[in-house]
Amino acid sequence: MAVARYRDIADDLARRIEEGEFAAGARLPTEEQLMVDYDNASRNTIREAVKILKTRGLVETTQGRGTFVLEGTVPFAVTLAGIPEPPAGGAGGEGAAYRFDAQLQGREFENKDPRVEIQRSNPEVARALALKEGTRVVLRHQERLIEGRSWSLQTTYYPMEYVTLGAERLLDDEDIEEGVVAYLKEALGVEQTAYRDRITARAPDTNETNFFTLRDTGSVVIVHDRVGYDRDQKPIRFTRTVYPADRNQLDLVVGAVPASPWAYDKGGAKKGGSS
Question: Per the database record, which ranges form the HTH gntR-type domain (predicted)?
Fold first, then answer.
């Protein structure tokens, strides 16, 4: 019963924060007041409830001053499908779809130059690309920021064979302006015609915790895996994108649809806008 009680209180406080009863920067009621508000709950129960709010990134406690509501994060809507690669009429490049999403949402987008390396494929990458384990692959690592804040980490794996066949630009540590998918079609005649996606969630690893500045406990990242295939259903690339769950929403668009009912304005309020 005690566990359910503090979680119930945490959920109710989170609701009150979301509905604006406690605005960003406002101080939460004291422990004593919260004990009264929640039917004489024990001090430990209130402290555990507040601890959950801290884990969710909703509040922060300053010694001697109290517990304050943090500024809310406006989710970035990532369109997983429904936008061509690159978007029709838009700029190309390896971050084209993300840039297009950012433009629709009025957000400032930054795509860092890729970091490139060559590795032996591990069992997971080998399976995804239908290669023998240990076959060399090219990795292109991409860091993306929204309004100066780390928003996603992406690594795409390509068979090293593509480089030996003439796609040397895969090894360049700079953005491929037309996008890698378009480049492979032009350079090698390798055309992506289909892809399969998988979405999972897990705790972040140390690198992700540091890059996204996440809390050591309670944080969650969303992992979006995509394998692209050519006309013969041969895999041509394996992309893994990691998103911190506290600042992203993933949208799947099929067909012609109106503006998203889940879009947010820059103040964090829902609107009838974009994505």
Answer: 3-72
235 within 8 A of 208, measured Cβ to Cβ: no
H-only helix segments in 153-222: 161-164, 180-188, 206-212
pLDDT of residue 82: 53
DSSP class of 27 = B
Task: Tally the C-alpha atoms within 13 A of residue 190's C-alpha that lie toward its C-beta.
Answer: 21
- Closest by CA to 190, choosing from 218, 158, 219, is 158
Alpha-carbon distance of 143 to 16, in angstroms, equals: 35
Over residues 171-210, the pLDDT tens digits come to: 999 999 899 999 999 999 999 999 999 999 999 999 999 9
Say if 2-69 and 107-245 have the same CATH topology.
no
Mean pLDDT of the chain: 87
pLDDT of residue 262: 72
Domain chopping of the chain, boundaries: 2-69, 107-245
- Would you identify the CATH topology of the domain 2-69? Arc Repressor Mutant, subunit A (1.10.10)
Alpha-carbon 6 to chain mean position: 29
Report the predicted TM-score, pTM, of the whole model to 2 decimal places.
0.74
Which of the following CATH numbers is that of domain 107-245: 3.40.1410.10, 3.40.47.10, 3.60.15.10, 3.40.190.10? 3.40.1410.10
Residues for the chain: how many in total?
A: 275
State both tokens at 257.
């649809």
Cα separations in angstroms, 161 against 156, 195, 208? 15, 20, 30
pLDDT one-digit tens code per residue, 66-101: 999 987 677 888 888 754 444 444 445 668 888 888
* Residue 85 near residue 97, CB atoms below 8 Å: yes
